């Protein structure tokens, strides 16, 4: 059994997280994250400024704000994964995503935000590749609930997938989600930078 396999139900925090993961294809979170690097770049290259900076009803954030949220979430997921993988069992609090969104950190260009999202995702992916298989089993308490490194990695992937799908729907864009040549994607695509 590979360490990056899907988590067991007892590794997750909530029924909502189980539902989110059920929608996510794949059996190896490292491969899923790698494909998402391609997907986010493809999607970004098909969006225009008008699509990025308007609120599409019934949503309350612009696409730019959604990407900012995804960047913030990647950082939070990465920190939690690092702490748990290292065996640090200090309980971690929840995070207020709306406070981060209201801070409006990402006032730069959209392409820079996509690059930042790619960099944070790649950082988390590389961390997961280098940790020992036993570390995937380690748990930490987040908002008073124990969760494993494996579950956090899958939730990070499911979270990004959820938001990229919504962006596709909002902007009526459909793009390839995987690089066609799997061998090339595994070897080279992970190091490719998003346009920007």
What is the CATH C-level name?
Answer: Mainly Alpha
Characterize the biggest β-sheet: 2 strands, antiparallel
N- and C-termini, Cα separation:
39 Å
The CATH architecture category equals Up-down Bundle
InterPro entries: DinB-like, DinB/YfiT-like
Domain DinB-like: 42-167
Pfam family, one: DinB_2
Protein name: DinB superfamily protein
Please specify the SSE layout and strand pairing:
Elements: H1 15-22, H2 29-45, H3 49-52, H4 63-85, H5 97-103, H6 110-130, E1 139-142, E2 145-148, H7 149-171, H8 182-187
Antiparallel strand pairs: 1-2
Question: How would you describe this structure to a colleague?
Answer:
- This protein has 196 residues and is mainly alpha-helical.
- It has one domain (29-191): dinb family like domain (Four Helix Bundle (Hemerythrin (Met), subunit A)), CATH 1.20.120.
- Helices cover 56% and strands 4% of the residues.
- The protein is built from eight helices and two strands.
- It has a two-stranded antiparallel ribbon.
- A hairpin with a 2-residue loop joins strand 1 and strand 2.
- It is globular, with a radius of gyration of 16 Å.
- The protein starts with 14 loop residues before the first helix and ends in a 9-residue tail after the last helix.
- The model is unreliable at 183-196 (pLDDT under 50).
- This is DinB superfamily protein.
């Amino acid at each position: 059994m590979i360490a990056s396999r899907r988590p067991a139900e007892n590794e997750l925090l909530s029924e909502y997280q189980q539902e989110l993961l059920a929608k996510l294809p794949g059996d190896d979170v490292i491969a899923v994250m790698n494909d998402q690097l391609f997907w986010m770049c493809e999607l970004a290259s098909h969006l225009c400024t008008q699509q990025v900076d308007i609120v599409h009803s019934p949503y309350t954030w612009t696409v730019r704000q959604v990407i900012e949220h995804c960047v913030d979430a990647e950082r939070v997921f990465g920190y939690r994964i690092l702490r748990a993988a290292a065996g640090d069992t200090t309980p971690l609090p929840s995070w207020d995503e709306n406070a981060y969104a209201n801070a409006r950190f990402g006032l730069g260009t959209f392409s820079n935000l996509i690059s930042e999202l790619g960099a944070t995702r790649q950082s988390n992916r590389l961390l997961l590749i280098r940790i020992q298989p036993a570390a995937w089993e380690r748990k930490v308490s987040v908002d008073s609930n124990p969760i494993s490194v494996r579950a956090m990695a899958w939730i990070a992937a499911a979270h990004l997938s959820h938001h990229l799908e919504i962006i596709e729907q909002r902007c009526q864009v459909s793009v390839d989600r995987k690089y066609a040549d799997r061998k090339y994607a595994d070897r080279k695509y992970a190091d490719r930078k998003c346009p920007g």
